[in-house]
Amino acid sequence: MRVLVTGGRTGYLGRAVVAAARAAGHEVTGVSSADADLRDASAVSGLVATHRPHVVIHTAYVQADWAVTATGAAHVAGACAIGGARLVLVSSDVVFSGADGLYDETAPPDPITPYGAAKAAAETVTAALVGDSVVARTSLIVGDGDSQHERLVHGLLRGAGGALFDDEMRCPVHVEDLAAALVEVGTSDYRGILHVAGAEAMSRLDLGRLIARRDGLDASRLRGVSREAAGVPGPIDVRLDSTRAAGVLATRLRGASEFL
User: Fold this and answer.
1) CATH code, domain carrying 68
2) Pairwise CA distance, residues 78 & 41, whole Å
Protein backbone atom coordinates (compact mmCIF):
# COMPACT_ATOMS: atom_id res chain seq x y z
CA MET A 1 0.00 0.00 0.00
CA ARG A 2 1.26 3.51 -0.82
CA VAL A 3 1.43 5.69 2.30
CA LEU A 4 2.15 9.43 2.35
CA VAL A 5 3.19 10.95 5.69
CA THR A 6 3.07 14.71 6.18
CA GLY A 7 5.80 15.76 8.58
CA GLY A 8 7.52 12.52 7.69
CA ARG A 9 10.88 14.06 6.88
CA THR A 10 11.38 16.41 9.79
CA GLY A 11 8.67 15.78 12.40
CA TYR A 12 9.30 13.73 15.53
CA LEU A 13 6.15 11.63 15.15
CA GLY A 14 6.21 11.77 11.35
CA ARG A 15 9.65 10.16 11.13
CA ALA A 16 8.50 7.37 13.44
CA VAL A 17 5.41 6.80 11.28
CA VAL A 18 7.59 6.52 8.16
CA ALA A 19 9.75 3.92 9.91
CA ALA A 20 6.69 1.98 11.12
CA ALA A 21 5.11 1.98 7.65
CA ARG A 22 8.31 0.69 6.07
CA ALA A 23 8.63 -2.00 8.73
CA ALA A 24 5.09 -3.09 7.92
CA GLY A 25 6.03 -3.51 4.25
CA HIS A 26 4.30 -0.48 2.77
CA GLU A 27 5.61 1.86 0.09
CA VAL A 28 5.99 5.06 2.09
CA THR A 29 6.93 8.65 1.30
CA GLY A 30 7.62 11.22 4.00
CA VAL A 31 7.16 14.87 3.04
CA SER A 32 7.75 18.21 4.74
CA SER A 33 7.04 21.91 4.17
CA ALA A 34 9.89 21.89 1.65
CA ASP A 35 7.76 19.63 -0.55
CA ALA A 36 4.50 21.57 -0.15
CA ASP A 37 3.37 24.47 2.03
CA LEU A 38 0.23 23.27 3.81
CA ARG A 39 -1.16 26.79 3.62
CA ASP A 40 -1.20 26.51 -0.19
CA ALA A 41 -4.15 24.42 -1.35
CA SER A 42 -2.84 23.96 -4.88
CA ALA A 43 0.57 22.84 -3.64
CA VAL A 44 -1.02 20.24 -1.36
CA SER A 45 -3.30 19.01 -4.14
CA GLY A 46 -0.31 18.70 -6.45
CA LEU A 47 1.64 16.74 -3.86
CA VAL A 48 -1.14 14.20 -3.38
CA ALA A 49 -1.73 13.96 -7.13
CA THR A 50 1.98 13.30 -7.73
CA HIS A 51 2.35 10.52 -5.15
CA ARG A 52 -1.13 8.99 -5.57
CA PRO A 53 -1.20 7.51 -2.05
CA HIS A 54 -3.78 5.01 -0.87
CA VAL A 55 -3.60 6.60 2.57
CA VAL A 56 -2.28 9.91 3.93
CA ILE A 57 -1.22 10.05 7.59
CA HIS A 58 -1.28 13.72 8.49
CA THR A 59 1.08 14.40 11.41
CA ALA A 60 2.24 17.91 10.45
CA TYR A 61 1.18 20.98 12.45
CA VAL A 62 2.51 24.21 13.91
CA GLN A 63 1.03 24.75 17.34
CA ALA A 64 0.81 28.54 17.16
CA ASP A 65 -0.26 28.75 13.51
CA TRP A 66 -3.94 28.28 12.65
CA ALA A 67 -3.16 28.50 8.93
CA VAL A 68 -1.00 25.37 9.16
CA THR A 69 -2.84 23.36 11.80
CA ALA A 70 -6.46 24.03 10.80
CA THR A 71 -6.47 25.43 7.27
CA GLY A 72 -3.60 23.16 6.27
CA ALA A 73 -5.55 20.14 7.45
CA ALA A 74 -8.49 21.33 5.34
CA HIS A 75 -6.20 21.47 2.30
CA VAL A 76 -4.97 17.93 2.99
CA ALA A 77 -8.54 16.68 3.42
CA GLY A 78 -9.62 18.36 0.17
CA ALA A 79 -6.72 16.82 -1.72
CA CYS A 80 -7.54 13.38 -0.32
CA ALA A 81 -11.19 13.76 -1.28
CA ILE A 82 -10.23 14.62 -4.87
CA GLY A 83 -7.56 11.94 -5.10
CA GLY A 84 -9.58 9.19 -3.45
CA ALA A 85 -7.05 8.71 -0.65
CA ARG A 86 -7.89 7.57 2.85
CA LEU A 87 -6.89 10.10 5.53
CA VAL A 88 -5.67 9.66 9.10
CA LEU A 89 -5.60 12.98 10.93
CA VAL A 90 -3.47 13.05 14.07
CA SER A 91 -5.37 15.14 16.58
CA SER A 92 -4.86 15.93 20.25
CA ASP A 93 -6.43 15.59 23.67
CA VAL A 94 -6.41 19.41 23.89
CA VAL A 95 -9.63 19.49 21.85
CA PHE A 96 -11.15 18.96 25.32
CA SER A 97 -11.40 21.49 28.16
CA GLY A 98 -10.64 19.01 30.91
CA ALA A 99 -13.92 19.73 32.69
CA ASP A 100 -15.04 16.09 32.46
CA GLY A 101 -11.70 14.40 33.17
CA LEU A 102 -12.12 11.14 31.25
CA TYR A 103 -13.05 11.29 27.56
CA ASP A 104 -14.06 8.60 25.10
CA GLU A 105 -14.70 8.96 21.37
CA THR A 106 -18.28 10.13 21.85
CA ALA A 107 -17.30 13.23 23.86
CA PRO A 108 -17.85 16.52 21.96
CA PRO A 109 -14.80 18.79 21.66
CA ASP A 110 -14.85 21.89 23.87
CA PRO A 111 -11.38 23.45 23.44
CA ILE A 112 -10.20 26.31 25.64
CA THR A 113 -6.95 27.17 23.81
CA PRO A 114 -6.28 28.39 20.25
CA TYR A 115 -4.33 25.22 19.49
CA GLY A 116 -7.18 23.06 20.77
CA ALA A 117 -9.62 25.03 18.63
CA ALA A 118 -7.39 24.57 15.56
CA LYS A 119 -7.27 20.82 16.09
CA ALA A 120 -11.04 20.68 16.61
CA ALA A 121 -11.53 22.57 13.34
CA ALA A 122 -9.18 20.14 11.59
CA GLU A 123 -11.23 17.23 12.91
CA THR A 124 -14.46 18.77 11.64
CA VAL A 125 -13.23 19.40 8.12
CA THR A 126 -11.60 15.96 7.90
CA ALA A 127 -14.85 14.22 8.79
CA ALA A 128 -16.83 16.47 6.43
CA LEU A 129 -14.63 16.05 3.35
CA VAL A 130 -13.26 12.51 3.62
CA GLY A 131 -15.75 9.78 4.37
CA ASP A 132 -12.99 7.20 4.59
CA SER A 133 -11.08 8.97 7.34
CA VAL A 134 -9.83 8.45 10.88
CA VAL A 135 -9.38 11.15 13.50
CA ALA A 136 -6.72 9.73 15.84
CA ARG A 137 -6.53 11.69 19.08
CA THR A 138 -3.44 11.25 21.19
CA SER A 139 -1.64 12.78 24.17
CA LEU A 140 1.93 13.64 25.21
CA ILE A 141 4.40 11.82 22.95
CA VAL A 142 7.65 10.53 24.45
CA GLY A 143 9.89 7.54 24.04
CA ASP A 144 13.38 7.62 22.56
CA GLY A 145 15.10 10.52 24.31
CA ASP A 146 14.45 13.18 21.68
CA SER A 147 10.88 14.26 22.39
CA GLN A 148 9.97 17.76 23.52
CA HIS A 149 9.12 16.48 27.00
CA GLU A 150 12.36 14.56 27.44
CA ARG A 151 14.42 17.56 26.30
CA LEU A 152 12.50 19.75 28.75
CA VAL A 153 13.29 17.45 31.67
CA HIS A 154 16.99 17.34 30.78
CA GLY A 155 17.03 21.13 30.46
CA LEU A 156 15.45 21.59 33.88
CA LEU A 157 18.00 19.27 35.45
CA ARG A 158 20.82 21.22 33.81
CA GLY A 159 19.60 24.32 35.59
CA ALA A 160 17.18 25.87 33.13
CA GLY A 161 14.42 27.82 34.81
CA GLY A 162 10.94 26.40 35.11
CA ALA A 163 8.95 23.57 36.61
CA LEU A 164 6.54 20.82 35.61
CA PHE A 165 2.80 20.95 36.21
CA ASP A 166 1.81 18.62 39.04
CA ASP A 167 -1.97 18.98 38.60
CA GLU A 168 -2.34 18.34 34.85
CA MET A 169 -3.34 14.76 34.08
CA ARG A 170 -2.57 13.33 30.63
CA CYS A 171 -1.97 9.87 29.09
CA PRO A 172 1.59 9.84 27.68
CA VAL A 173 2.23 7.50 24.76
CA HIS A 174 5.43 6.00 23.36
CA VAL A 175 6.21 7.41 19.92
CA GLU A 176 6.80 3.95 18.44
CA ASP A 177 3.53 2.58 19.85
CA LEU A 178 1.65 5.57 18.44
CA ALA A 179 3.35 5.34 15.04
CA ALA A 180 2.56 1.63 14.73
CA ALA A 181 -1.05 2.28 15.75
CA LEU A 182 -1.45 5.03 13.14
CA VAL A 183 -0.10 2.80 10.37
CA GLU A 184 -2.29 -0.09 11.51
CA VAL A 185 -5.50 1.94 11.65
CA GLY A 186 -4.65 3.76 8.42
CA THR A 187 -4.34 0.51 6.50
CA SER A 188 -7.44 -1.02 8.10
CA ASP A 189 -11.16 -0.53 7.45
CA TYR A 190 -11.75 1.52 10.61
CA ARG A 191 -13.49 4.88 10.17
CA GLY A 192 -14.22 7.69 12.58
CA ILE A 193 -12.62 8.87 15.81
CA LEU A 194 -10.14 6.71 17.72
CA HIS A 195 -8.29 7.57 20.93
CA VAL A 196 -4.70 6.30 20.75
CA ALA A 197 -3.08 7.41 24.00
CA GLY A 198 -1.04 5.58 26.61
CA ALA A 199 -2.72 3.20 29.05
CA GLU A 200 -1.82 5.24 32.16
CA ALA A 201 -2.74 8.75 33.28
CA MET A 202 -0.20 10.84 35.15
CA SER A 203 0.90 14.42 35.77
CA ARG A 204 3.66 16.12 33.83
CA LEU A 205 5.74 16.10 37.02
CA ASP A 206 5.35 12.33 37.46
CA LEU A 207 6.20 11.84 33.79
CA GLY A 208 9.30 14.00 34.22
CA ARG A 209 10.43 11.95 37.21
CA LEU A 210 10.07 8.73 35.24
CA ILE A 211 12.18 10.18 32.42
CA ALA A 212 14.83 11.36 34.89
CA ARG A 213 15.06 7.97 36.60
CA ARG A 214 15.30 6.13 33.30
CA ASP A 215 18.19 8.38 32.28
CA GLY A 216 20.03 8.02 35.60
CA LEU A 217 19.29 11.59 36.73
CA ASP A 218 18.18 12.95 40.09
CA ALA A 219 14.40 13.05 39.84
CA SER A 220 14.07 14.71 43.25
CA ARG A 221 15.46 17.94 41.78
CA LEU A 222 12.42 18.41 39.55
CA ARG A 223 9.96 20.95 40.94
CA GLY A 224 6.21 20.81 40.58
CA VAL A 225 3.90 23.76 40.07
CA SER A 226 0.13 24.00 39.66
CA ARG A 227 -1.02 25.00 36.17
CA GLU A 228 -4.07 26.53 37.79
CA ALA A 229 -2.04 28.56 40.29
CA ALA A 230 0.43 29.63 37.60
CA GLY A 231 -2.43 30.96 35.50
CA VAL A 232 -1.24 29.17 32.36
CA PRO A 233 -4.21 28.52 30.02
CA GLY A 234 -4.91 24.93 29.14
CA PRO A 235 -6.87 21.86 30.20
CA ILE A 236 -5.91 20.39 33.55
CA ASP A 237 -7.46 16.92 33.60
CA VAL A 238 -7.63 15.32 30.13
CA ARG A 239 -7.53 11.53 30.24
CA LEU A 240 -8.25 9.84 26.91
CA ASP A 241 -10.10 6.54 27.19
CA SER A 242 -8.35 4.28 24.66
CA THR A 243 -10.46 1.19 25.38
CA ARG A 244 -11.78 1.14 21.82
CA ALA A 245 -8.26 1.16 20.38
CA ALA A 246 -7.34 -1.80 22.57
CA GLY A 247 -10.25 -3.69 21.02
CA VAL A 248 -9.63 -2.87 17.36
CA LEU A 249 -5.82 -2.70 17.14
CA ALA A 250 -3.16 -5.36 17.53
CA THR A 251 -0.71 -2.61 18.54
CA ARG A 252 -0.53 -2.31 22.33
CA LEU A 253 -0.45 1.22 23.73
CA ARG A 254 1.69 0.94 26.83
CA GLY A 255 1.58 3.18 29.88
CA ALA A 256 4.53 5.44 30.68
CA SER A 257 5.49 3.47 33.81
CA GLU A 258 6.05 0.47 31.58
CA PHE A 259 7.93 1.99 28.66
CA LEU A 260 10.04 4.34 30.78
Assistant:
1) 3.40.50.720
2) 8
